[in-house]
Amino acid sequence: MTDGTESESRKLLRRLRNAMAGDSAGQARLDEITHLIADSMGTEVCSVYLFRDAETLELCATEGLKPEAVHQTRMRMGEGLVGRVAKVGTVVNEADAPSAKGFRYMPETGEEIYSSFLGVPIQRLGEKLGVLVVQSKQAREFSADEVYALEVVAMVLAEMTELGAFVGEGAALSARHQQSVLIRGTSGQEGAAEGHVWLHEPRVVVTNPIAEDPHNELTRLHEAVDTLRISVDQMLAGASGGDADQVQVLEAYRMFANSKGWMRRMEEDISRGLSAEAAVEKEQSAARARLGQVNDAYLRDRLHDLDDLSNRLLRILTGQGTDTGAELPADPILIARNIGPAELLDYGRSLKGIVLEEGSVGSHAAIVARALAIPLVIHAGRITTEALNGNHIMVDGDQGIVHLRPDDTVVAAFRDKIAMQAKAQERYASIRDKSATTKCGKTISLLMNAGLMADLPSLQGSGAEGVGLFRTELQFLVRNKMPKRSELSAIYSRVLDAAQGKRVVFRTLDIGSDKVLPYMKPNDEPNPALGWRAIRVGLDKPGVLRMQLQALLRASKGRPMSIMFPFVAQYEEFKAAKWEMEKALERERILGHAVPEHLEVGAMLETPSLAFAPDRFYEEVDFLSIGGNDLKQFFFAADRENERVRRRYDTLNVSFLTFLEGIVKRCAASNTALSFCGEDAGRPVEAVCLAAMGIRTLSMRPASIGPVKNILRGVDLDGLRKVIETANMNGDQSVRPAVMDYLRKQT
Ligand code: PEP
Ligand code: MG
Fold first, then answer.
1. Which among 304, 364, 379, 403 is annotated as catalytic?
2. Which residues, judged by CB distance below 6 Å to any ligand atom, belong to the binding site of ligand 1?
3. What pTM value is reported for the model?
4. What 3-state class would DSSP assign to 228?
5. CA 344 – CA 482 distance, rounded (Å)
């Protein structure tokens, strides 16, 4: 970059700033800017295209193209060269544009006489706002310096767009963050919620993208980076020796904070006329754009690290902390790109709903949201850039839909839905203390699933008869280091206290697969769900299992205890785990501690193999609980975490029901208690079918107990069983249509 172009670029930005400072309105300002850019860059044409909706760009101002095309010419994302810039988020530089691949001629613009084309995206932190284009008659490729200069200008335009500098008539110039937006994501936890936005990480606002004095900006940047480096070093010193994963992230932070390339690019941006914060944001935007194109998980993580670091640097430069002085609304809906389970627990039940831009169904945050019964939508694209603190928002956790700043008709329809749910809740409350006895006189025992202390109040409120599955891994997941035996023992004891004599089935640690402890060295396994997880880890590295068994036994303080082992695939594994239990009991006795007055040792049936285990296994195990989530994924060979296949096979598929029936028969023959604790137990239609197949104990989320009890009380299981058998004989793949038909007629 020559001194000459440097000062040209700065000169252009200065002229831009003057244009911004003037009191012209949005459209006039944009017109002036396109004129200025064309003049400074020595091109005949400069045009600004902005998005009028997520898919359509609109020509909003031009110098050089026909003025009547303004607000008339539109193109879809990916259409023509302009659409390509927007879609890919990178520069298009063509000397002979009309013969370039994808060129689309727009006759109303009169652009046929221009040969060269340079388009750069107008984007802010990965959010696509529009495209800035210069064109000229002379067939030439624009130089790297010119491209860079236009990118710097686009960056300033993006900041100005965000600040509302171009608000005018029409959709493309409408004020940002004011229209109602519908975002489609994925359901993470059912339920509907209305409230106001609370941004987990408030956005930094850059109000001064153009700087007067580059030397001053360089000094500010260097000072801020020094402060950043010191804080990263301090964090590292605090974390070393502890959580290995956190240390790894901080090491990556340190690497970026000391990266010469990152620094050099920001210095170059400043020398072009940007302020220090605009320079940081320009590089952050570029990194976010790359993030969208990278599939490699490791690289994505590193780009995320760089993004976090840039946020920290921006906060240092602008003085805008995470505490913006905003107050948590009374009905907060939490918005975040992602959030850890411990942070989510800090908010606790104060949240009405959660919307995440990323996340996954099996993520720890989703597990916690489910435990707290807070509606959750994940994969809600653009939510963190669209939402502002305090915005009105409605979350439909059933459909995975978010209505941001909804209009009146949406509000009315949504409130109707909430009212209907509230009415249903009233009905469920009225049968809370009644048993789940069917019309044909069979009583089904309904238990709840839990994993956190926060779940326990639901034991009384939901009408559950006990806890059929206590997932102990949550206590491990929400910490950043391995909990001590005494800590665990105290927690388990409090769980038993809260249960007030009701049965609690503790499941020993189920880690691996989708549940990775933050402080455990991740294992690079090709198929983690089929890998080294749950009881396999417990038996191969028994230290943690022994510690946990001891904590459980000690927590009993002589009270009855039920413990089950997860993911047992063969009898031998159960025998080995039970032997560990016997040793633990023996140890406790020797130490003179009270042992449970009655101890039940069970297993989860989550692999098809266990359904065919020897009779001896069935005779020896005190109880079995079918983990339908895992069992189904292995039965159908369909990954429960993979959106493409996870809903492909119906639980009411005749093959699966016949398979379950076989398990019921084996348990009946050996007099082994059987329950079902996968998610399907909490789905009313699935639940009645499980009951019709002979399963008499169902364990589910507390919020499902009401709806499941309600349907069970109105159903005749013998009649339903006949419907299932007939559908099977008729060759139906799933009995669902026949069952639905039957249930409709019953009510
Ligand atoms: C299951 O697999 O059905 C189960 C209850 O265990 P988890 O969902 O914790 O894997
Ligand atoms: Mg499981």
1. 364
2. 469, 471, 510, 606, 627-630, 677-678
3. 0.71
4. helix
5. 19
